[in-house]
Protein 1
Amino acid sequence: MSLRVGIVGISGFGGGEAMRLVAGHPSFELVYAAGEGSAGSRLGDRFPGAPATLAELVIQKWDPVTLPKLDVLFASLPTGASAEALARVPKEVKIVDIGGDHRYVEGWAYGLADVWPDRIEGRTRVANPGCFPAATLTALAPLLADNLIEPGNIVIDAKTGISGAGRGGGGTFGYADSNENLVPYGLLKHVHMPEMATTIERLSGGSAAGLVFAPHLVPMTRGVLATMYCRGRATTEQCLDAARRFYAGRAFIRVTDRPPQTKWATGSNLAFVSYAADPERNLVIAMGVVDNLGKGAAGQAVQNANLICGLPETTGLEGAPVWP
Amino acid sequence: MSLRVGIVGISGFGGGEAMRLVAGHPSFELVYAAGEGSAGSRLGDRFPGAPATLAELVIQKWDPVTLPKLDVLFASLPTGASAEALARVPKEVKIVDIGGDHRYVEGWAYGLADVWPDRIEGRTRVANPGCFPAATLTALAPLLADNLIEPGNIVIDAKTGISGAGRGGGGTFGYADSNENLVPYGLLKHVHMPEMATTIERLSGGSAAGLVFAPHLVPMTRGVLATMYCRGRATTEQCLDAARRFYAGRAFIRVTDRPPQTKWATGSNLAFVSYAADPERNLVIAMGVVDNLGKGAAGQAVQNANLICGLPETTGLEGAPVWP
Amino acid sequence: MSLRVGIVGISGFGGGEAMRLVAGHPSFELVYAAGEGSAGSRLGDRFPGAPATLAELVIQKWDPVTLPKLDVLFASLPTGASAEALARVPKEVKIVDIGGDHRYVEGWAYGLADVWPDRIEGRTRVANPGCFPAATLTALAPLLADNLIEPGNIVIDAKTGISGAGRGGGGTFGYADSNENLVPYGLLKHVHMPEMATTIERLSGGSAAGLVFAPHLVPMTRGVLATMYCRGRATTEQCLDAARRFYAGRAFIRVTDRPPQTKWATGSNLAFVSYAADPERNLVIAMGVVDNLGKGAAGQAVQNANLICGLPETTGLEGAPVWP
Amino acid sequence: MSLRVGIVGISGFGGGEAMRLVAGHPSFELVYAAGEGSAGSRLGDRFPGAPATLAELVIQKWDPVTLPKLDVLFASLPTGASAEALARVPKEVKIVDIGGDHRYVEGWAYGLADVWPDRIEGRTRVANPGCFPAATLTALAPLLADNLIEPGNIVIDAKTGISGAGRGGGGTFGYADSNENLVPYGLLKHVHMPEMATTIERLSGGSAAGLVFAPHLVPMTRGVLATMYCRGRATTEQCLDAARRFYAGRAFIRVTDRPPQTKWATGSNLAFVSYAADPERNLVIAMGVVDNLGKGAAGQAVQNANLICGLPETTGLEGAPVWP
């Protein structure tokens, strides 16, 4: 039996990727799609490669009043837009909010699915982590849980592909200006910082007051790599071992000996973590890689939907990454 | 029940994509992989994102004598290498040769699966079309079958992503020399020409003597677009209509009103065809788009394997393209 | 002694490249810059790498009434905008219009500088050719002049980097949608067609009625390659020889034995032409490569300005292409 | 009067860029070029866009015995190859070694031209800094000179375009594997580390023992961005002010309020530096951008050659960056 699924924000990159994953999900049926820029057009016009069974679905203008009966709704709206948009969705519709408005908000589970699956199961409202937090926290969690690094002294140098900036930014992120260009932005004041600080504190029990976060736009479409510089006396092997234990049996986390590359994850819900430490210098480098639209958005969202619907969490997410 | 599958040429791009598709195929089990450059390593070393169930498979040096019991073997070897390599494979092993050596060779079906599926079913040896022919012939077939264009007067201007040149060409196709560069090559003498000419003749019954083929390398990883300039008096609508009838019920062909873009197909087994005609100028422009590693190689190969194994031809190939 | 130079349209790619070339020109001094999107800002804000001597120049809102005394004005405005904008510029200001409004317009020389330099010298109004015509006509001119091809039967398959679409198209040409994507557009109805047809007719004396033009967007920033399929009985060597004679002594044209690559021209005012012919098939393939912002826009514009100012035409344009 | 110039290592990216700059230099004449992979071919075959005056120069196999009379030799050889190759070059030939073998070697000046021009003038042997050190040290020097940061506690997260890995690595850095991929490598053990540590110590007078260096390959051709995390109590404005004073009157250094982007420098000898500090967190982020083939290699080399030849240091280096 299929669950009835809707997506709001289908015109954006996150919503589009949710469409792709829902289309391939054996227990989900996409029955509703809404989008600002594409309302009125067929899904097949917007996504010429969409499955034939979905091509005729007409994209709606979002209106919670006319929402059809749904089991699950994925929301992928710009920051600031989803709080209001989702307030009037009926309680019986489970929601996974890929956008940023409900992270660490009362009544919403924080959907860091590989770290805290038990906090998500049984809930009806899940706030998906941001793409940077997905890469960052997945790599840091085992170290923080084992007290291998100081929570108050973490520097995150993060790099993202340009789809991470969203489609709305077309003007700013035009091809000719962005290609062959590497751009630091949002130094020390990125919108993802509070979410990362809070999670670090919950994982470690200590303060994350010294957190430094410097994101960079990289001329590629997908992919996030976070390189984190931490204080700690662990060896590389101790860090890898902590991660292997922490993620034992977790399907989507790969702990690797060598530094992970963003392309390893493209199109998948995988996260790759690795470490390089130098105890003599009191240094641990942690690295996390995700596809910003996969584990960093729609992949993690489907995993969260699986968890709250009582499905095996890997359902519909088994696809291997696309290489090259 | 799963069929036992092997892949030879796993180090190349076509073999790697076959691995990805076989891994996600519900009736195939990958039990054997061989590769020149990667023999001795684990599949998980070569493909860090490979499914955990395959990660421990050790890549072999190719030797038909030590081949395990297989139902299907995919071969993806450089031109000139597969004829000899496959000669001693036991008859009961079905083979799909992604490489170029067996196209239009006695005893081998030519695997243009969406055009001639009935010539493939029941066979045990299939030669997969090249990536350029896959894009080109899929778009031309309906026009040739309906005599809407002259077979002897076709100009093919073809553009391919750089993975189409194979991994062996690393030295030639280094990043810094290839990026931001558009390169015509192999004018009038490309290895795919005879295969295209023969197919055009079989489809039309006429001579393809005037065929012109000009391939170009485009700075992108995947994708083929063939733009074809033909002589004919049909209208655009007549061409589209011919294609819709020709491919009625075919799962992987999309006939589109607007010119197709290569990214529509990325990661999928889809082919997109479209047309723009001007009867007053005796002109029909035909366009075909495929992912050179999908419909142009491993996707079509799996479709062919499905056909010769008596499976529904879409099995394991339902995934929507990855966008963006 | 320096000539006083102005640029209108400095916010666009063509205007920006004109700024770069004027800055390096020994006889030009940039004293005025106007731009829609950047009026009020310093040139150094817009172009952080601009020469220190220009950084403080404040970009103006275009208004011909407040124009300072100028010797030369470069205009790089969107199609449709320059006719009106330039109508009231004083007669004594020489104008090179990089935009499309004045091509083959009464009173304006058509600035195909390497083919017809003598029609440009002594003029005060020059309409710069479009980027596609620059690549196309440069390669075709010697063949047409020697009657080696039929003027009425030319197919132009043209490929351009995305800066060729202009900066205004940021929304349409966002990075994530354009990267790894090859896009045909404007089939048979591109705005550059009349200009090419007219020039072909003037060069050959015959009709260009059968002209076919199919442009494609390629995922790279700069570069145009035109591949042209023509009817003719010449050999490759005859075509090369015709071009070598036609362009003898011309500084910016390179006739090459092998097919030209777009990156050969990046950042320069060079054009590369080559040919591959097969007399038995009545076929001549002509290829032309330019940088769409160099010979295809600002480079050619500076060359034209040199011609009308009585300077050696290579002044300020000697820089070798940037590779890789 | 022109100085006679030679280049050894013309087949590599650094040697090729040196060729481009020497070709445009008013006081240099290229009379000799040597290269491993291209010996015997004409310069015009290797660089189709090379100035016509250089096209006929035949590339030699390197042999110091048959060296013609030269005033200046640029060497751009792989690490480990230049020490021996240059040992027998006559003393009267001035050498700028772009390769790594002579940095902080007895008898060779370290060519950090914008920081220590006076240590370079009058010398005959100059070791050019590596591309990472050029970006890193240019941004750090003013802070270290003013004691605004602790020298022993610097984390360098560096990102380079793929030409920084050299052309020899074609196999490793093939287009399809490198495109859309972000790759950390050489963590904590990169060959550029000692050079950076030594320079930091000389600039500060303190120990650089805690230096952390993590380089990353970014899918673009040119450009280096170093993001550095330092300990210090200065404000952003104090850092910017220190840099403006330190580099007052230096032609190639741009101190910018906003974070620099790699494309600002493409094709030029410019370096961009900026800072973002938070005294409450004892944090200074320093950023440096260079073109790895410009200020990071051939541009700096020409600047050094100007210094040792008694020419104005900007000669031949005035060209503005190529954008976009």
Protein 2
Amino acid sequence: METVKLILQYDGTGFSGFELQPGERTIRGECAKALKKVYKRPIKFYSASRTDAGVHALGQVISFKAPASIPLSKLPVAINSVLPEDIRVIMAEKAGKGFNARFDSKAKTYEYLIFNGAITPPHLRKIAWQVKPKLDIAAMKKAAKIIVGKHDFSSFCAANSDDKNFVRIIHSFVIRNSSFIIWDGQKIKVISIIVKGNGFLYKMVRNIVGTLVEVGLGKRSPEGVKGILKAKDRTKAGRTAPAQGLCLIKVWYN
Amino acid sequence: METVKLILQYDGTGFSGFELQPGERTIRGECAKALKKVYKRPIKFYSASRTDAGVHALGQVISFKAPASIPLSKLPVAINSVLPEDIRVIMAEKAGKGFNARFDSKAKTYEYLIFNGAITPPHLRKIAWQVKPKLDIAAMKKAAKIIVGKHDFSSFCAANSDDKNFVRIIHSFVIRNSSFIIWDGQKIKVISIIVKGNGFLYKMVRNIVGTLVEVGLGKRSPEGVKGILKAKDRTKAGRTAPAQGLCLIKVWYN
């Protein structure tokens, strides 16, 4: 037996999220089927993040113990050949014996994309949130500065969460104008929000983004975020930004 | 009554192509429904290109005559509000009285994307063709030079075409390494093929691309394209490249 670490990419559009749900198409369900086919036995695996329905991943990590029957260099091809094409294994490597993708993660980086304009290009509709009125990015950056650091994030945690400890550390929170390029070298302007933290409560990134957008729309002051944190009350923060704008970029380990 | 020119973008993934087909979701069908809602009467319209199922558009053009009841500046918002979000009107303008998007087009530019590697990123699977073995781009460029100019393109015309005149002029045919940027500034390398011509036979771009890929794989010589053109025989050319790699970039008018 060896401990294997896989990096996955997926287009979250066609999934009811990562975790199993009866009768639903999920990332875990598809991965479990694929691993069972490849190893000819059920494989129990852990994931770094349990992404919600519609959330994408560029660098999800899963880990499991399995017989060393398949060379790791051939594992991505073997698993991809039985996975649906909206999930891809992009890397497989041997991990330390006790490695666990979920419990050993030291930090995660997420990106949230906002299309700030009147007409969302059709190919962006499933990977960005359309906000029509012009956002005040300077105000959003001020609010983001308040978010950085160690705080009790109860106010940004979904009410139906299982979390018990609400303290998390946000290492960085960067908001910038960015561009997409798909066809013809044409640049499509988007607002990119990249946040790195030691851990995230249920829907925390989306609740923070939803609140910052309200700051960007002038509905809240940047300084108001201090009061929201202090309140430890979900009802004090803004709306939850929609899932499709969110992407798990990277999971950090020692 | 005024003559209106609209520029459309669409994600071709969810459509059975542009033209009406009984029981199928088509671009024409969705546009007809939307125009009827906006103008409260059926609107007959022409399109520059009749894109196939799965083909995308960044600059499709349609034209129609309609009552001047809605200011053109408000027309995109009005139509988009009743169109599904995988089609967007990005521009509306008044055209000359006799303007016809189909018959007045002087040239069209298409782009075809190839992902040349082992693992297609999930978000590219519906907009690029995955070719796993490394392509010889220099050989493909040599073949492309032969395609440029005025030729009888019978060998690259799908057998079930209605076309009668098979002579077309290819103004330019550019193959280059390009990049996609979606998340995190990460560049994903793709091969971009941009072709501009005065008109295209049924499946012509995809048949040329399919043949050039066979050149890139070393299955055909670049010079062999001369013989293919001369043969005027579809069976002499290569396979049809899959639809999802193709995008209508721009339609040119005087």
